[in-house]
Every structure is written in structure tokens, then in C-alpha cells.
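So, could you explain the following?
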Amino acid sequence: MKKTLVKLKERNLSTLATRETRGLKMSEHKTLKLCVELVPSTVWESSLYRLVPREVWNRIRDNFITENGRKCQICGEVEGTMNLHEIWKYDDKNHTQKLEGLILLCKMCHNVKHIGLSGKLASQGKLDYDAVIDHFCKVNDCSERDFQKHLRDSFETWHERSTHIWKQDFGKYKEFIVPKLHLQSEQRFKNE
């Protein structure tokens, strides 16, 4: 498991984020409940979370919890911090990224979704990366080898998607986006 962290460090963890890969099959008989999500680098800093005022995000999160309950929608955990996570769908032909919805996740499921950030935190001694892998394997009832394959496949897709400029569709949440925050986000990307 320690080898995994070293391999992730070698892939320049500062350039990793998230991607929507829910429902991927590990084999002919197994569908993943919990997947790594890597967002193309060309749309980093352009999440709904970053583009709406904090009080709006908090209201969206509170309403979501009121409607759906305070429980991880993947593993069922009810204790600890719960994170509202954006679910994105990708049209690889037209390079469109569409916000399909939101999901409430426990800290560990959220760490799997944001595996790049998890690797970076682990390299700083702030997170147990092996525990993140173990959580993935437990939720999906799979082996670490299955995790490694899923991770490799996710990075392959991420590398390809990161070569394109993506049009974003925020759906019903578009009205909450503050143009100034969106422009600042685009400017940060251009300056990197």
C-alpha cells in the first residue's frame, strides 16, 4: 500500500482533482459503488463550490441534508463530517461537463473521490492513505489490486480529458454563480 503513495507522488499530485466514474465495472460481475473521480485540469477551480458565495453553498448543503438526511449516500456512514460532492457527467465528443447533481459523502468516501488531494495530504502526514484504499476496497468488496486497476484507468481518462477545453453546464445552479468568482477562477488557471 505504501508503494501506491509513492507512485501517486511521482504523478505530480499537485495536478490532480476529481472525475465522475460512478457505476464502473471491475469485471463482468462487479459494479463499483465508490469510484475515484478526476476532473480535467482545464476546469480546476471551476466547481460550483468555488463559484457560488459561501452562504449560498451552505444553504444548498443544508437543504440537501434536510431533504435526504445526514448520511453518506454511498457507504451509509452517519458519524463525522459530511461533504456535499458534485456529480459531473462528461460528453467526451463535444467536451461538455454537466453538473448532474449532488451527493452527500462521509469523509472517507470523499477522500476516495478526491484521491489526488488525498495523496497530497498523506505525503504531508495529514491523512492515512492506506485507510483510504482500505475504505475503497471495503465499500466495493474488492482487492487492492482492483483499486490499482481502477486508479490507473481513472488517470488514463484524466490525462486524455485534460488535453481539452471543456464547456461547463451548471444546470439549475447556474443562477447562483457569481460572475466575478468565475472570472477569477478562469484567470487563476491561465496564470498557472
Residues 133 and 144 are 7 Å apart (CA to CA). Residues 1-29, 182-190 have pLDDT under 50 and may be disordered. The chain has one domain: 2-174.
